[in-house]
Amino acid sequence: MNDETQWLSPREQHSWRAFIRLNQKLTARLGSELQTQSKLSGPDFAILVALTDDSAGRLRFQELAKAIDFEQSRLSHQIARMIKRGLVAREECAEDGRGAFVTITDQGRETIEAAAPKHVAAVRRLVLDAIPPEDLDALGDIAARIIRHLDETAP
The whole model's pTM is what? Predict the structure, then answer.
């Protein structure tokens, strides 16, 4: 063992393991419900949400990858699967021959519009109903602080 390692205290270890278990269970449960209710995977949903957040319903591959924290190769494979299902389309960029856009299709928009209410209900049932209103801001603040730290810390 490395003598320089600053091991987690029992309190830190408890918090860390609870956080990891929460992430695993919540991701699995939300993913399972999305698949069962809407025939969408978590990545499908994240991509469709990012595209609907853009007023034109389209993003460059690089912008989309950044928005959902995907590597380019993983995103390319995911987009290829979604194109086959008619959820998105790929458009070449007229201004930049090297770039391409991912665009939500009418079918993709209908799919996300049908899935979103069910997903929101699941988020409310599985997360928000378990948190007293006075703790909600703390949850958001802690999450935002960790996200900022991750963004500022080189991989």
Answer: 0.88
